[in-house]
Amino acid sequence: MEDTHYLRSALAPRSVAVIGATEKRGRLGYDVLANLLAGGFTGRIDAVNPKYSSVQGRPCVPSLQALPQAPDLAIVVTPAHTVPALVAEAGARAVPNMLVLSAGFAQIGPEGQHFQDQMVSAARRHHVRLIGPDGLGILRPSIGLNASFARTSARRGSLALVSQSGAVAAALLDYAWAAGFGFSSVVSIGDGCDVEFAELLDFLAMDPETRSIALYVEGVHNPRSFLSAVRAAAGIKPVVVLKAGRHTVGSRAALSHTAAMAGNDRVWDTALRRSGAIRVREYDQLFAASETLSSGRMPRGSRLAVLTNGGGPGVLAADAAADQGTVLAALSQAGLAALDALLPPTGSRSNPVDLGGDADPQRLASAFEVIAADPDNDGVLVLFYPTLCAGAEDAARALLGPVNATRKPVVLAWLGEQDAAKGRLVFKEAGLPALASPEHGVEAFAFLAQHVRNHELRLQLPPPIDPSPAGSKPLDVGAARRIVETVRSSGRNVLGEDEAKAVLAACGIEVAQGRLATNSAQARELAERIGFPVVLKVRADGVTHKSEVGGVLLSMKTADEVALGFELIRERVEKRAPQASFTGVLVQKMVVRPNGRELTIGISRDPSFGPVLAFGMGGTAVEVVCDTALALPPLNRVLGADLIDRTRVARMLGNFRGMPAIDLDRLIDALVRVSELACELPCLRELDINPMVADEQGVIALDARVMVDDRAIAPDAAYSHLAIHPYPKSLERELRLIDGARLLLRPIRPEDAEAEQRFIARLSRRTLYMRLHAPVRELSLEQLIRFTQIDYDREMAFVALKSEAGQDEEIAVTRYVTNPDGRTCEFAVVVADAWQGKGLGRRMIETLIAVARARGLEAMIGHVLTANEPMLRLCVKLGFRISDHPEDSAVRRAALDLAPPR
């Protein structure tokens, strides 16, 4: 792996130059240089300003060209209109990075935007990376770097902070200094016109000085790359996000139930949860969550034990636990018996355990050891207030040994300020998080439990391929597209109910299909043909919710009732929606499901994250009940089940009040099919299935509404309308080997985990050693997840499959992973022993090369054992250059230039 990230020279530079350094106090150029000098930066500092020969006691040169050596990082503090030319000068001097602290780009209106556009254009022409403008700066305490105009510096620590707002970053620095927090890096990206969150996350994920990452986010320019980077980073270390702008909503009135329920902030919640990040809502939570998560101790579950020396703090903690959904653990009988020997008669041995106000440090430590050893809890919160019997510092020191001895997560909250602060300082100096309130203590444990839940969700392995219930119809995307094309060609963007249901039917979802009647006589005839009882539903352009105009009549039992019902619906529409254009009435068989639960499934389009799925309780009161959960497509069956579990209606789907459990597999299948529709129809603007009735027989859509727009009818190769890259089905192809064998070559997917494990188990010792450089017989769960649940934006893996005994068996796999430099990738390939020597390896690598080249990567690199002569010969045939490995004589380095052939 090429492990030097291209932003290291910007975020941990060896030399810096301040362009616009000045002697004038109060100016930005003075403050930034002063901070650099005061911080004790270990590298070289240069001052650049044609007006001075020296600044603040240091030599000053007139331009970057006059410097004897190009700096890693140039810091610009000059007016906005001067910056584009300075960027060009930096490019000519081979300066790789510029931190633009100059203000005024956004503040001076269109002219400022013009300057910013010029700056970005110059940076791209000259290959200079920009951080800013309008940010606070960069701090890297481990090397003494304070390239900012912050009033407060940063202690060294393991938390990395990335903030869009310079003001928020400055406030957080000030808060952290007083609270004793330290940082590995602080980066204020400001407008983020070039370097954004995604690239910074990639750097910090691999940064050995960073144990947890905190983000202050107002919005992102590229949600897809942001989520991809968050997911990658959160798989390595905790990522905590403070997302501002929670109550900013769009002005467009929602046309569908789904759009009304999927507010942008809820979508942010959904996106961050899917990526594995922890979201907080206050900046003191940002530090509490980050510090607690970086401790490395994670709970097995959400059962919390609370130990306190006062009843009041325990009650506050219990209330907070109820609010957070945290379970207060029931202590074991052995634990209770051990506590009986420690507690006074006035103490409480229930959870929270109250030691009483007369508890001394030894009683506190002994009780903690009992509770920490109890297997019936997953973590301990200790609440302490100073008393005459126990000072805060003495109590803290008494707990240091027992806290360090347990492997459980421990949250410490020393309540108060004057004396309690001394105890918190003891914990801070020992590297332990310490808080100041019961509520924050419970909250910190809840963050730990949420991080574990997110991690466990990542580790859920989907079932093998083709998991749809027996009898499910195949997805016919082509038919769905033809229906939409017909509607759009007629000048409409809202499908009629019959057309919407036809789209769902093409997706394999059972629907209650109706026939359109344009007059009462035709309605009578259709009803007699369908069979009574029937339902009548209005079809009229301009009517969004049928029930609001009285456009639905149920259980029509005779032809006369149907005829009268037709006229009644027409009259109601004319009276209640005079602007609507009445087309007719749908006549539909009355579906009677006595055990049915009314549900809703929908799609809406979020302005940031694209298509969003909604699931919850259905019916006419869906917006009043507000029981919906959201998810970003694509979904698999594990994610579909999780979406259902996050609703209250999920409790009604099992055996409920005499009704049998619904067919959950069919419901999950419907969610996955709707997700596929969102992936394959970029023009789909909104979809409502309400109600979707589910019972023991399956699921059926009784009503549906679809709105489309003029976007593409089919996705592009990158599925750019989605926030998360789905499975790239277009890359599937049949492979024919020289011996005539036919194989399926396709990208790997999560459902391949079992096949991947079987494949590894069948490999010979020699093949395993040549590929993995170790005699591995079985992949760990983490490895299986890593190998099969890939991010198609960042990496690619292909498997070759042969159908054997009714199931697809993996016989070869090849993959590449993009290196931290963002330009190159590392590849590997392994072929089952029985299939070697048939040209399969070559065909797979050629496919991998084509994809990497199409995605703009510049080089592909592999590391091959010197003893693996067949692989080295193949690499040479494919155009790889073979060279010695700089650190290992037993390994050769193979490198291929991916520049397109001329």
Key descriptive features of the protein:
902 residues; alpha/beta; 8-stranded mixed sheet; 7-stranded mixed sheet; 28 helices; 24% strand; globular
Q: What would you say this structure looks like, in words?
A:
- By secondary structure, this protein is of the alpha/beta class.
- 35% of the residues lie in helices and 24% in strands.
- It has 28 helices and 38 strands.
- The strands form 6 sheets. It has an 8-stranded mixed sheet, with helices on both faces. Strands 3-4-2-1-5-6-7 form a 7-stranded mixed sheet, sandwiched between helices.
- α3 (83-92) packs parallel to α4 (110-126) and α14 runs parallel beside α15.
- The longest helix is centred in the middle third of the chain and has 21 residues, at 438-458.
- It is globular.
- The two termini are 29 Å apart.
- The relative contact order is 0.06.
State the helical fraction.
25-40%
CA-based shape = globular
| Class based on secondary structure composition and strand pairing | alpha/beta
Largest sheet: 8 strands, mixed
Strand content: 15-25%
Overall pLDDT, averaged? 89
Which strands sit side by side, in order, in the main sheet? 31-32-33-34-35-36-38-37
Number of DSSP strand runs: 38
Number of helices: 28
First CA to last CA: what distance? Answer: 29 Å
- Compute the CA-based radius of gyration: 32 Å
The stretches of 5 or more residues where confidence is low (pLDDT under 50) are 249-263
Q: What is the strand and helix layout of this fold?
A:
Elements: H1 8-11, E1 15-19, H2 28-39, E2 44-48, E3 54-55, E4 58-61, E5 73-76, H3 83-92, E6 97-100, H4 110-126, E7 129-131, E8 137-140, E9 145-148, E10 155-163, H5 166-179, E11 182-188, H6 197-205, E12 212-217, H7 223-234, E13 239-243, H8 257-261, H9 264-275, E14 278-280, H10 283-293, E15 303-308, H11 311-324, E16 327-328, H12 333-340, E17 353-354, H13 361-373, E18 379-384, H14 392-405, E19 410-414, H15 420-429, E20 434-435, H16 438-458, H17 477-489, H18 497-506, E21 514-517, H19 520-530, E22 534-541, E23 552-556, H20 559-576, E24 581-589, E25 597-606, E26 610-617, H21 622-625, E27 628-631, H22 637-645, H23 664-680, E28 684-695, E29 698-701, E30 704-708, E31 733-736, E32 742-747, H24 753-762, H25 765-772, H26 781-788, E33 795-804, E34 807-818, E35 824-831, H27 840-854, E36 859-865, H28 869-877, E37 881-884, E38 891-897
Parallel strand pairs: 1-2, 1-5, 2-4, 5-6, 6-7, 10-11, 10-12, 12-13, 13-14, 15-16, 15-17, 15-18, 18-19, 19-20, 35-36
Antiparallel strand pairs: 3-4, 8-9, 8-11, 21-24, 22-23, 22-24, 25-26, 25-28, 26-27, 28-29, 28-30, 31-32, 32-33, 33-34, 34-35, 36-38, 37-38
